[in-house]
Write a structure and sequence with these properties.
There is one protein chain. By secondary structure, the protein is an alpha/beta fold. It has a domain of 194 residues: Rossmann fold (3-Layer(aba) Sandwich). The chain is 46% helix and 7% strand. The protein is built from 13 helices and 5 strands. It has a 5-stranded parallel sheet, with helices on both faces. Strand 2, helix 11 and strand 3 form a beta-alpha-beta unit. Helix 12 packs across helix 13. The longest helix is centred in the first third of the chain and has 23 residues. The N and C termini lie far apart (105 Å). The mean pLDDT is 79.
Length: 290
């Protein structure tokens, strides 16, 4: 602020002095101003002839209304265009009433599985007649009551069985936990029969091999994968087996049956093809769907 006051005092004339008169423009400057004024007048004349206004300035733009973009409502077509969520098997099965398995279900499953890779003759060899099947569970039986119905002469078969590496009855299910449930639920049927667990959870295959080689068992309950491995290593022989029971109708927490699980389905079909179907066609083994 101090320098501004000094500057003002410096411009102020001393007492008794007059401010020098402003310099007048010379002739060259006057000519330039006159030329510029003429150019502006000529431009204004041309602007009027074209229908414009006399002012050389551009007309101010009219203010336009501004609208905020509102979110568009979802149309039905937009909803349909979205990728539909795949239906899970549990969603489908929750809406459908449970139906008991029948021998035709197993036959259709085998035909669908081998239909693309096998000839007609090979598929015919895999088909089983109705005489190869035991009465199916109608969803009213417990496991013990079902076994009593299909095996009325179980006491005689149990006493006559004395072979090692073999079983009188083989039960196939989807998991180790389900195997334990079935073993507990057959207490009223098995009596003092010896039951062996044929699954992989917490049990090594060498332990099961030693048990089959040294001991005698009447019933085996387990998963198709472990049973298939024991059969392939010639530790378990199915020639003396009379009954093979598939835990067909039971569903897990996801409402899947054993044949709805891809791994269990493949292992079960492989075991049926390599060992069980031939024995069923010969008449020595009966298949049951619980």
């Amino acid at each position: 602020m101090l320098w501004k006051m000094q500057y003002q005092l410096w411009q102020r004339p001393c007492p008794g002095q007059r401010r020098p008169p402003a310099a007048r423009p010379g002739p060259a400057r006057s000519a330039q101003c006159a030329g510029a004024a003429g150019a502006v007048a000529a431009w204004a004349t041309r602007w009027r002839s074209r229908g414009g206004t006399a002012s050389p300035r551009r007309a101010a733009r009219q203010p336009t209304e501004c609208f905020l973009s509102q979110p568009k409502e979802k149309q039905e077509s937009a909803v349909k265009a979205k990728k539909r969520k795949k239906k899970k098997i549990s969603d489908v099965l929750q809406k459908s009433a449970p139906k008991p398995g029948v021998p035709a279900d197993l036959q259709n499953l085998l035909t669908q599985h081998f239909g693309e890779n096998r000839s007609v003759i090979e598929i015919e060899e895999l088909k089983l007649s109705d005489s190869c099947f035991l009465p199916a569970n109608d969803l009213t039986h417990s496991f013990s009551s079902y076994l009593k119905e299909i095996c009325p002469k179980w006491a005689k078969l149990r006493r006559s069985h004395k072979e090692k590496k073999s079983l009188v009855m083989l039960v196939l299910c989807s998991s180790a936990l389900r195997s334990l449930e079935l073993i507990k639920s057959m207490t009223a049927f098995k009596g003092d029969c010896r039951v062996i667990k044929l699954f992989a959870k917490h049990i090594k295959i060498k332990e099961q091999m030693n048990m089959l080689e040294k001991g005698m068992f009447h019933i085996g309950v387990g998963t198709p994968g472990r049973v298939k491995a024991l059969v392939e290593q010639d530790v378990l022989c199915l020639n003396s087996t009379k009954y093979v029971i598939l835990d067909w109708n039971w569903r897990d927490q996801k409402l899947r049956r054993m044949m709805d699980i891809p791994e269990i389905k493949k292992e079960t079909i492989d075991l049926l093809e390599k060992s069980i179907i031939k024995l069923c066609r010969d008449g020595s083994v009966k298949l049951g769907l619980f």
